[in-house]
Amino acid sequence: MPFPIKEVRAAYPALSDGHAYLDGAAGTQVPQPVIDAIATAYRTGIGNVGGTFPASHRSDAIVAACRAAVADLVGGRPDGVILGPNMTTLTYRLSRAIAGPGDEVVVSRLDHDANVRPWTQTGATVRWAEVDPVTGELPVEQYAGLINERTRVVAVSAASNILGTRPDVAAIAELAHRAGALMYVDGVHATPHGPVDMGAMGADFYATSAYKWGGPHIGAVVADPGLLETLRPDKLTPSPDTVPQRFETGTAAFADLDGVTAAVDHLAAMVPGAGTRRERLLASMAAAEEHELGLFAELVAELESMPHVTLYGKPARRTATAYFNVAGHEPRRVAEHLAKLGVNVWSGHSYAWELTGALGIRDSGGAVRAGLVHYNDRTDVERLLDGLTRLR
Known about the structure:
The protein is α/β, with parallel strands linked by helices. 36% of the residues lie in helices and 15% in strands.
């Protein structure tokens, strides 16, 4: 059956303002069930965890439900879900517990800086995987010469946040594991765009951010709890020493965690289906991916036909994310022009610091990014193309 785009869009109140929200790669809008869950948590009353009274018990239940929801989304275990304010904070925290002087780390020019700088600043020796600047691909073959017995971790993105490139993470993981190294996979951009199976891709750690898939600003890193038991992060003396709690600093945003669970449930229900939540998520996200890529194929074909538009990257496998420049117009000015037409896009480096450097455009303002998510429709694409045509 076709993807029920009208029903999906109706769940997002923000879309009623008439704008074409093509800025999802920087953060999606929030469906009504998430808004309701957060509001209900505050209305009902919540307290800190571990107490003896009902409000505290509600927070205990919220945290447990959130871990289970995130685990279902990515194919992990609830007792291996670390929750925090965002992926960057969690990655910094974990990088210090995983690598240090005397180790080697392998990072890539494809990645968002949040999966680069935390590793290069550990004091470990850094080895770089390079990107093909024409295709936007991250060749797997180079990793054989980068990974050795001293490699502690290989950090790589499951999808580029500007080019959409989906590298062969499983093949890279096979090389890493053969050498005894760990795989830290940045799934922030990949998770909203299709089914995720962290085990199949060989991820020892899988990072994601709920605000990229309809949730609030909460980050998560998922790992095997047995692996987490081997790591000792810095922590406050009286804070829990259990896994995964030892990796979580401070008091959680409990109402937002309830919103994360609601966001996962919303994704699982986008298309009719039966089975466990995990099974429904796999089916629903596969349908969403097909919907996005169908629209994206039309968008790319039109962009490539415009002589005044330069589209970056031609990866074989990608998310529905376009990164382009318009001749004679600075990226920021293009974004401002489109904003006046009610089309929301981003411009600049989008924290893909190394990749925009490899493309040779970082110092000239980067490029314009337009990304499709499950609630975008053909009208959004047409409005973007019309706005770009006016700049010819």
